Amino acid sequence: MTLQAVVIGTSAGGVQALSQVLPRLPADFPAPVLVVVHVPPRLSNSLVDLFAAKCRLPVKEAEDKEPLAPGTIYFAPPDYHVLVEASGTIALSSDEHVNHSRPAIDVLFESAADAFGPELVGIVMTGANSDGAQGLRAVCAAGGQGLVQIPATAEVATMPEAALSACPDARTMALERIVPALEAMIAR
Fold first, then answer.
1. Is 11 noted as a catalytic residue in this protein?
2. Which domain holds residue 97?
3. Suppose 132 and one of 1, 9, 75, 157 were both cysteines; which one would form an S-S bond, judging by CB atoms 3.0 to 4.6 Å apart?
């Protein structure tokens, strides 16, 4: 498998969960990492500053029409869906909320599955609704890999449980095992 991109979705408890994963990515990690965290629409994106200080990879807010760069972590801006176009560029959308959320995890995962197919990894972490479940199903249906935080270890298990119901082939794992799993996929 050639890993072309990683998409991550999380909600309630997500900052703590991401703090156990993103800083562990090595400085030479070759794929772009796109992250959706459900944040209130009027908040400025403090996640970028928070994670830029912790991570070895560059961290930025996703921008419309921006080509994806390898080894870069992109956070969805508040109140915008993030999509990946077939050309490997980012598209932002202010379309209707999906699962009561904008940005929505499903929107990112489904568009990334269309763009990257079997060369995509989708990761669903802690959260309080079912956003990400249909998106992870799309990732797996396109031949990509699905990883899900072990529900019992999630601050809120609803999102990982929904993802596993929608995509039973996804692998569950502890947060600290996610980066080694990604590195093993790259090494293959």
1. yes
2. 5-187
3. 9
Total domains in the chain come to 1
Helices and strands per DSSP (H, E), number in the chain: 6, 9
Tokens of 162: 């929904």
User: Average of pLDDT values for 127-141?
Assistant: 96
Mean pLDDT of the chain: 95
Residue 79 a catalytic site member:
no
| Residue 153 amino acid letter | T
Question: Is residue 38 annotated as part of the catalytic site, yes or no?
Answer: yes
- Categorize the per-residue pLDDT at 1 as very low, low, confident or very high, splitting at 50, 70 and 90: low
DSSP one-letter code for 22 = G
Rounded-to-integer distance, Cα 62 and Cα 73, Å? 9
Q: What is the pLDDT of residue 43?
A: 62
Average pLDDT value for residue range 125-131 = 95
Catalytic residue among 81, 101, 111, 131: 131
SS3 14: helix
pTM summary value:
0.97
Burial class (CB in 10 A: 0-12, 13-18, 19+), 98: middle
Q: Residue 150 is part of a domain; what is its CATH number?
A: 3.40.50.180
* Alpha-carbon span 96 to 81, nearest angstrom: 9
